[in-house]
Amino acid sequence: MLSKIYELLKYCYRDNGADEIPEIETQLFLIAVKSLLPYEDKIGCMFDITRYEKEIELFKYYKSGQDENLEYYLLNKKPSEKEDRLLEFKIIPIIIANTQWDNLIDEALKAAAFYSVNKNIILDTILISSAIDEYLSAADAGTDDINEITRERLINFSFKEFLTNNNIKTDKSSLIEFEKERVKMLSGDEVISDDLKNKFKSLHYIYSERKEDKSEISSETVLSNFSLYLSKLRKGIIDPEKLKIPQIDIPEFRQFLKYPAFSHPLLGRCKVLKRGEKEVILRNKSGLMKVNI
Questions:
Q1: CA 142/CA 95 separation, integer angstroms
Q2: Residue 43's closest CA among 235, 171, 263?
Q3: Helices in the chain by DSSP H: which ranges?
Q4: Which of 70, 133, 136 is nearest to 105 (CA)?
Q5: Could you give the CA distance from residue 251 to residue 181 in angstroms, rounded to a whole number?
Q6: How far apart are CA 122 and CA 83, in angstroms?
Q7: How far is 67 from 86, CA to CA, in rounded Å?
Q8: Region 54-72 average pLDDT
């Protein structure tokens, strides 16, 4: 299982070296991982929206790339209705950390809808989640098996119930457009089309790239460390109490930057490596960050 998780992550994300600033895809991965909190009364991990909102407000200072839907959220404090080119990078950790389908899809959709309520985003989340879930859960998950199980899950999904449960308001035309797109997907031989396999790295890996011979897992990279962490979350062997952040008002981030080293409630222990007129380079246990000031 650990090897499966690592190989998938290694294909989807760039495993930056110790002296490199992570790309935005990897940064979004790390933020999602930090926002996973094991349920106290059922199997799996919840996507902690409260924690994620705090992470995103902090992320605006050090993100190393552009995300149109992220910018929209920061400006409007609500999801957009646009496509999300970085969708899979935000939800993969949530999918890996959960083994029960109902919990998995609820939490993955919660994360996707944080950024966009576009009908294709919702449908793509279902397809990506189902494919990765079957890839990880089944010993010999063939593409035919993934297709049939995903088809059934797509049929059973209630868009109206999803909107109600998440207090999302939309007009009747959105429901009609969603159903049209779902019918279109279900009418083909495969619900996960070639276009989707080429669009999403995770799907391309599962359908085209995965091999029997697995590479050795390094013990010194960000992705190997987080692969092990996600594996433990998936097994339910991490105490949720250890992951909860203090319920305190966190000072303005720039206040922390005055010191050569500091401990931040979200970032942990940080050390200032370099100061410039417009930026500060920090290091914490996840790697380097370039903070715009």
A1: 19
A2: 235
A3: 2-12, 24-34, 49-59, 68-76, 87-97, 101-115, 119-137, 143-156, 159-165, 172-186, 194-199, 201-204, 222-235, 253-256
A4: 133
A5: 45
A6: 10
A7: 7
A8: 94
On the 0-12 / 13-18 / 19+ scale of CB atoms within 10 A, 170 is: middle
For 238-264, how does the pLDDT look when each residue is reduced to its tens digit (9 = 90+)? 888 888 887 778 889 989 999 999 999
User: And the tokens for 284?
Assistant: 């914490």
Task: Report CA torsion sign: 254, 258, 264, 269.
Answer: positive
Mean pLDDT of all residues in 48-66: 94
Q: pTM here?
A: 0.92
The length of the chain, given as a count of residues: 293
- Structural tokens at position 40: 């106290």
> Are the C-beta atoms of 222 and 289 separated by less than 8 Å?
no
